[in-house]
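Recap from last week: sequence in, structure out.
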Amino acid sequence: MPKIKWTAEAVSDLKSLEKVFAKRIVNKITWFGDNFANLNLEMLSNELNYLYKVRVGNHRVVYSLHDDILQIEWIGHRKDVYKKNKK
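Predicted structure tokens:
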């Protein structure tokens, strides 16, 4: 099971959501960490191909993997989450 770390941006994103959505996301990330070894990971494409996503309703959690650390990078609505950190 990987250790889960949250970036400041991800924490800020989570706090900006309604509590019901934030709770769903936290529950999903906890479940995701507990079941990590049995999951098929979804990698992003193009210039974000070093990142992965997990779907939670209409929201997406974007994360990266570093050895045994799953780092939550940012969270957003599906319509614009991938544009958020494109540079």
